[in-house]
TrEMBL record:
Cited PANTHER family: UBIQUITIN CARBOXYL-TERMINAL HYDROLASE, UBIQUITIN CARBOXYL-TERMINAL HYDROLASE 2-RELATED
Source organism of the structure: Saccharomycodes ludwigii
Enzyme class at the top of the EC tree: hydrolase
Protein name: Ubiquitin carboxyl-terminal hydrolase 2
Family note: Belongs to the peptidase C19 family.
Highest taxon of source: Eukaryota
Source lineage: Eukaryota, Fungi, Dikarya, Ascomycota, Saccharomycotina
Length: 1280
């Protein structure tokens, strides 16, 4: 072929993407087909902050969908007539939809999502990213979306006619660039252009004149379609770029005008390899090579000795082109094929060889090419070829002329256009950043890039009457247009009300699972626009928004993300959660409970409205008043009015005078019935408000369920059922909600109806028990609380259950004179001290008071008794406080002269006392009123109290050198004597501050023998404590109250200390050489046991360190893994240019360290579990190292004292076990003041962490004395 060449640069080349070779027709077709046939689906994986997670519709479309098939009338048309709607069902089937404004905003923000989430948003519904879009606006995210205004030098917009509708349809292609401002922050030197990422926006629009004239809509909507859903007519005109180039793309079609908008976000045309050739060192090297390479080197200058521009041949004075000059040369080369208009062929050559309109090519030795660009770019990236003519070589550009008819050529031409546009942007940035205005680098200034949005509306043929005013309007409304509520509805603030409502309805129709979200958006838009029409429309919908619903679910402790369909939550489940939360609010005694209860009630109202539940609405409407004063005020009553008849009369008068206030009056009666726990008021409420019977009728429950809820069985007599009901009604601490009383009444009514019980029916009607219908009871008597004496009541029940003590007390007949007549009384000592006559008189009277109470508890025909105030006073007041008694002849029990102030002071003293102080005071008085069985060596009185409750221990101080196994044992045994001290103990005190595993672990701390002390006479000694004598009844006090030295206040430690029904004390007993077992062997076992515990402690400390977190909440292992994950990111290699091998080595090391730590953690956990099991069973073996078993001194648990509350306040009760014989099942009862109820042993052995109802006193009895515990002792004279 003939080639015309020139030393001047005129028109040059182009290519496919810089990152890939030229495209063949088959490659383009295959790639397009693969891309365009891809199904479109929304991304369901986004955070709650962005929108719903599980409810976004999967909009995968199938080309075989019947709704998408061409109608018969359309398929009969050979060409599109431009008037037929090709997509009649689009608005009913395809989701998402967006307006043109929303699509433009998607383009504007797409780079953020592509770069941060590796996925675009063009195909996503707005709710999938609306919240993130709002956050971007708050962060002032402003990317650059620029288009070229000058369409003469470079044509970035062109049109071509439709193949299927040539007379009416036109296809417009528009190209722009998109990049983030963050890219500019890295431009510190000209060499940093390699880090620029200039994305491209390609918009293809197909519009039909007749359709647009027919449907002149205000705000048109466009629905997402896949390529397969395009009508065959449109498939002839709409083609997408190769998928490797595409970062995001979507096709949207208007269901009215059939306008097609295809948006493609394309990756940069130039990669780092290309841009790096324009770095300064590369430019300089090309100049060096050009002037100094030897003969025969390719592209070297050998024939000239002077520079054509007159520069000196000295290299230091050679002109080096700037980066902008090199880029401008590159731009001209790429632009050349775009402006070429003719093609050389045989017809262009005359007979004499003259060439007409020949193509212009670039000589391969052209200085501008060789020095300003890397010539390899032309063939490697721009589809240039090298042609020879004679001995010369030329770069021949690709042909881009026939782009209207040839699809491959069109794609290639578009690629060259994008390359030019990209070079313009890069050149402009380089020019502005690094070259002054005076420098000779002004080439790119001729190209004007604009960010105006007006071009977008012109592309869509949307008429804007006043461009400036419209743009200013958009700017002023930006805060609304970028708010996620507006985005969810694909709305802009300037839309008319009809369009906003239409968008809302379309969203709900196409995406009904997220209707609540769209309702939220609509109400927000209505509030922003202050539009009454929107307000009225929102109210007419009677819906609950997603935000309100989620807030209600969160208030109820339900994670909205875990609930796929909230409407499927049952009313009973909602009410159960509501009651539990409300109960906890009452239980905690929150001073701000009104706010919390209000939020809870509002949440229930929202759920009732959402579910359209008449039952839940009834609950909300009839909710009792939070403040009882409001209930009295509603009925015009004085506060504290308790007369049921007056309350009922006030209600009837108020409702008669103001019928519209009946609901308020119903709530007031409900509140007062609950406040007073009045069964007659509940009956009155149900009679006046039949809705209570509608929702709480007996037909909805079964007889067995009613029995179970009251806590009885079908064999129980009516009086037992009534007793259980009465205890629940008046004493169940969990019965704190009004509805629970309605349900409890309903349960009793069900039982009464089933049994036809007159006793139960009378009680339900009147709230009173007809005693004539009651049989004699066979149940322990309760004790009325006479004022903050609950732990005294527990203590009295406990002493009553010990039959030797009870029998001794009930039969007590001594007087002070009787005691003084005993010669041993004068010598006796109690608690190591002498006892005065005054103390004897007081103690005798205390014992009489206790005798009378025990006698009453045995013989009363009633369910409970009331302790005398004298008994409470004498129990709490210290024994050294004198008490005067009134003289009464022929009466052993005297009345104490106690003033109300003295009694109150004593009760206050009882509140402040530790329970063990009260125990000591009570037992001291019982001992003082008793005659000794014998006097021990120190004249200490030995009596029934000592026998039952007191043991003996021995404390030994052992010099370290005399320990078993010490090398100096023999030499120093005589020189350093052992100090021994014997003591009596009433109870063993255990500490829970170290969180013991169980009661044995706690006792180990009490008897620990590894405590070292330093004494002047002995030096370093070890303290050893052992038991030498065990009591019949073993009492263990759990220390729970401690003092916070930082806050200067006491606090309660609620650490759970597990215990069992049996405990064996052998391990804490003294072992003599010739006695029970071999002493040395036992000491060795204790030493081994101690060593195992020390090992366990070290392992637990190591585990704690491994699990410890840093300031951001990461463990060491997690920190290693997070660091490894960070090092794997492409940012470090691509942006920071870190060495991949070094990174890989570091990542491998971190992962291995994490695996090692994980393995170490698992090994430690396994070792701790094994060690704990060993310790738990260490003394359980039947024969340990030749020793007898450690189960000789066994005790059985029979009483557990409970305190619920904090250190300075709370409530007390006691569980006491009854075992009538060795063959019968043990019964546990709860003694809670006047209420005595049977409980399951699981309630006693409840070691749930965080439970404030904690055991603080455990009582065991020797196994062979278990039957001496007799809590039930009733002798009722039926004739009385």
């Amino acid at each position: 072929m003939s080639i015309q060449h020139s030393s001047q640069l005129n028109t040059f080349s182009s290519s496919d993407s810089i990152s890939s070779p030229s495209l063949s027709t088959s490659n383009i077709a295959d790639d397009n087909l693969e891309k365009l046939n891809a199904n479109i689906s929304t991304n369901k994986e986004f955070s709650q902050a962005q929108g719903p997670t599980d409810n976004i519709k999967n909009i995968e479309k199938n080309s075989n969908d019947e709704n998408l098939k061409d109608t018969t009338s359309i398929t009969e048309i050979k060409l599109d007539d431009g008037k037929t709607n090709l997509y009649p069902n689009l608005c009913k089937t395809n989701f998402p939809f967006k307006t043109s404004d929303r699509l433009l905003d998607d383009i504007y923000c797409s780079l953020y999502f592509i770069n941060n989430q590796d996925t675009g948003i063009l195909q996503k519904p707005p709710i999938a990213y609306s919240r993130e879009r709002t956050d971007l606006q708050l962060k002032e995210y402003e990317p650059n979306l620029l288009h070229l205004m000058d369409q003469v030098t470079l044509k970035t917009k062109y049109e071509y006619p439709s193949k299927s509708c040539p007379n009416d349809a036109l296809i417009t292609v528009f190209m722009a660039v998109l990049y983030e401002d963050e890219d500019l922050l890295d431009l510190n030197t000209p060499d940093d252009i390699v880090d620029l990422e200039i994305y491209h926006v390609k918009i293809t629009i197909k519009s039909k004149k007749q359709m647009e004239l027919r449907y002149n809509v205000g705000v048109d909507t466009f629905h997402l379609v896949s390529y397969d859903e395009l009508h065959p007519f449109d498939k002839q005109d709409i083609h997408m770029e190769n998928k490797e180039k595409t970062a995001d793309s979507a096709i949207y079609i208007s269901p009215l005008t059939n306008k097609i908008i295809m948006i493609e976000i394309l990756r940069p045309e130039f990669n780092e390899d290309v841009l790096s050739t324009f770095q300064l060192d590369k430019i300089e090297n090309r100049i060096k090579n050009y002037y100094h390479h030897g003969e025969g080197e390719k592209y070297t200058k050998t024939e000239d000795t002077t520079d054509p521009d007159g520069a000196s041949k000295s290299f230091d004075l050679l002109p080096v082109p700037t980066q902008v000059q090199c880029l401008s040369t590159f731009f001209k080369i790429i632009k050349g094929p775009l402006v070429e208009t003719t093609v050389t062929n045989v017809s262009n050559v005359t007979n004499d060889g003259t060439i007409i309109n020949e193509r212009k090519c670039i000589p391969c030795n052209n200085k501008s090419v060789i020095t300003k660009i890397d010539p390899e770019l032309l063939t490697k990236y721009l589809n240039f070829t090298i042609e020879r003519e004679n001995e010369d070589e030329y770069f021949l550009p690709p042909l881009l002329i026939n782009y209207m008819d040839d699809l491959d050529t069109r794609f290639l031409r578009d690629s060259f256009t994008r390359k030019c546009l990209e070079i313009i942007v890069i050149g402009n940035l380089s020019q502005k950043q690094f070259y002054s205005a005076s420098s000779n680098t002004h080439y790119f200034k001729i190209f004007q890039l604009s960010s105006s949005q007006v071009v977008w509306y012109h592309l869509l043929h949307q008429h804007i009457s006043n461009t400036y005013s419209f743009i200013e309007q958009l700017k002023s409304q930006l805060q609304y247009n970028t708010d996620y509520h507006f985005i969810d509805l694909s709305c802009y603030y300037y839309y008319d009300i009809k369009s906003i409502i239409k968008n809302y309805q379309t969203c709900c129709n196409l995406d009904p699972d997220n209707m609540e979200i769209y309702y939220d958006a609509l109400t927000y838009v209505a509030n922003c626009k202050h539009n009454q029409q929107l307000f009225v429309y929102c109210s007419s919908l009677d819906l609950v928004g997603k935000e309100a619903l989620d807030g209600a679910l969160i208030t109820f402790g339900i994670d909205p993300q875990e609930i796929v369909k909230p409407q499927e939550i049952t009313d009973d489940a909602i009410l159960r959660i509501y009651e539990n939360i409300k109960q906890s609010i009452f239980y905690k005694g929150n001073n701000e409970h009104q706010v919390s209860l209000m939020d809870l009630k509002n949440a229930l109202h929202i759920l009732a409205k959402f579910k359209k539940s008449s039952f839940l609405k009834f609950i909300v409407n009839h909710e009792p008043y939070n403040n009882i004063i409001d209930a009295y005020y509603a009925l015009d009553l004085e506060p504290n009015m308790k007369d049921v008849d007056i309350i009922q009369t006030a209600y009837l008068i108020k409702v008669s005078d103001a019928p519209g206030l009946q609901l308020d009056c119903d709530r007031a009666i409900y509140s007062l019935a609950f406040y007073l726990r009045s069964l007659p008021l509940f009956n009155f409420l149900i009679a006046q408000c039949p809705d209570f019977n509608l929702f709480y009728n007996t037909d909805e429950i079964s007889y067995d369920d009613a029995l179970e809820r009251i806590g009885v069985n079908s064999e129980d007599p009516d009086n037992a059922i009534l007793d259980h009901f009465y205890r629940k009604w008046n004493g169940d601490e969990n019965l704190v909600l009004p509805a629970n009383f309605i349900k409890l009444r309903r349960d009793l009514l069900k039982i009464a109806i089933q049994r036809k019980s007159k006793l139960l029916e009378h009680f339900i009607e009147t709230g009173n028990i007809d005693e004539s219908l009651l049989p004699a009871g066979n149940w322990p008597a309760g004790l009325n609380n006479i004022g903050n004496t609950c732990y005294l009541n527990s203590l009295l029940q406990y002493y009553f259950s010990i039959s030797p003590l009870r029998n001794y007390t009930v039969n007590y007949q001594k007087t002070t004179e009787d005691l003084l007549s005993n010669v041993t009384i004068s010598k006796r000592r109690i608690g190591g001290r002498e006892v005065s006559r005054q103390e004897m008189e007081r103690s005798v009277q205390f014992t009489y008071q206790l005798r009378n109470l025990f006698d009453d508890m045995i013989h009363t025909p009633y369910k409970c008794c009331t302790p005398k105030k004298e008994l409470a006073y004498l129990a709490f007041a210290p024994s050294n406080v004198s008490v005067e008694f009134e003289d009464e002849e022929d009466c052993t029990t005297l009345v104490a002269k106690i003033s109300p102030d003295q009694l109150e002071n004593a009760l206050e003293m009882g509140r402040q006392q530790d329970v063990t102080e009260c125990i000591g005071n009570v037992l001291f008085q019982l001992e003082t009123a008793s005659e000794p069985l014998k006097l021990e060596q120190d004249d200490e009185q030995y009596d029934l109290i000592k026998q039952l409750f007191y043991g003996k221990s021995k404390q030994t101080l052992v010099p370290v050198s005399t320990e078993l196994g010490s090398e100096e044992n023999t030499n120093n045994m005589d020189n350093k004597p052992v100090s021994e001290k014997f003591e009596r103990f009433l109870s063993l005190l255990v500490d829970v501050s170290d969180k013991p595993r169980d009661i044995y672990d706690a006792l180990d701390s009490y008897f620990q023998d590894d405590e070292l002390l330093t004494m002047d006479e002995y030096g370093q000694v070890k303290r050893v404590v052992v038991i030498t004598e065990l009591p019949d009844i073993l009492q263990i006090q759990i220390q729970r109250v401690y003092y916070d030295r930082e806050r200067f206040m006491p606090y309660k430690n609620i650490t759970a200390v597990p215990f069992k029904d049996k405990i064996y004390m052998d391990r804490y007993m003294e072992h003599k050489q010739d006695g029970e077992g071999d002493k040395d062997t036992f000491n060795n076992l204790k030493l081994q046991y101690g060593q195992l515990k020390q090992k366990l402690k070290r392992l637990q400390e190591t585990k704690l360190k491994l699990c410890d977190t840093n300031e951001v909440g990461l463990t060491v292992k997690d920190a290693l893994l997070e660091t490894s994950k960070f090092l794997k990111s492409d940012l470090l290699v691509e942006e920071l240019e870190m060495n991949e091998d070094n990174l890989e080595h570091t990542i491998t090391t971190l992962n291995e360290m994490a695996k090692t730590m994980d393995l170490q953690s698992k090994n430690i956990v396994n070792e701790i579990e094994a060690l704990e099991m060993t310790l738990d069973t260490f003394f359980d073996d039947s024969n340990i190292n030749g020793m007898d078993n450690f189960r000789k001194h066994g005790y059985s648990l029979f009483a557990v004292f409970i305190h619920r509350g904090e250190a300075s306040y709370g409530h007390y009760w006691v569980y006491i076990k009854e075992k009538k014989s060795s063959d019968t099942r043990a019964i546990w009862r709860k003694y809670n003041d006047e209420n005595v109820t049977e409980v399951d042993e699981s309630e006693v052995f409840n070691f749930t962490q965080g439970n404030t109802a904690t055991p603080y006193f455990l009582v065991y009895v020797k196994e062979d004395l278990e039957l001496e515990i007799e809590p039930l002792k009733r002798i009722i004279n039926l004739q009385e």
